[in-house]
Write a structure and sequence with these properties.
Glutaredoxin; two-stranded antiparallel ribbon; 141 residues; four-stranded mixed β-sheet
Length: 141
């Protein structure tokens, strides 16, 4: 059995679409609502590194205290940015997904298809009406 984990925010459309794509592949992932159960520092660093990102790439600006905290300052170190993300988990961009095929920050949500070991089981349309998977389980576009 393949293990899949999603660091999820149920209030985020991208995160909901990503979770739905995982389920469309017939997988019920471990869902970690990271705003209520944030990752520890080692886990967050590992997610970022394994996804091939820099710390700043995993930092969310929209709808967060990013500007109020002055996080756009280019002199801030990765450790300082991580401290802010751990103190304010809303600053962690989402959703991160972990599968046997790798780790991905799934923005847009269909990026999850690159690391899902299982094929899609049928058609899938995102919440905004954009079709992503056809009736045969093939990626559109």
């Amino acid at each position: 059995m393949t293990s899949t984990t999603i660091y999820h925010n149920p209030n985020c459309e991208t995160s909901r679409n990503t979770l739905a794509l995982i389920r469309n592949a017939g997988t019920e992932p471990q869902v970690i609502e990271y705003l209520t159960t944030p990752p520890d520092r080692a886990t967050l660093v590992s997610l970022i590194q394994r996804a091939g990102l820099g710390v700043r790439d995993a930092l969310r600006e929209k709808g967060t205290p990013y500007h109020e905290l002055g996080l756009g300052d280019p002199t801030l170190t990765d450790d300082m940015l991580l401290d802010a993300m751990l103190a304010h988990p809303i600053l962690i961009n989402r959703p991160f997904v972990v599968t046997s095929e790798g780790v991905c920050l799934c923005r847009p949500s269909e990026k999850v298809l690159d690391i899902l070991p299982q094929a899609q089981n049928g058609a899938f349309t995102k919440e905004d009406g954009q079709p992503v998977i056809d009736a045969q389980g093939n990626r559109i576009g």
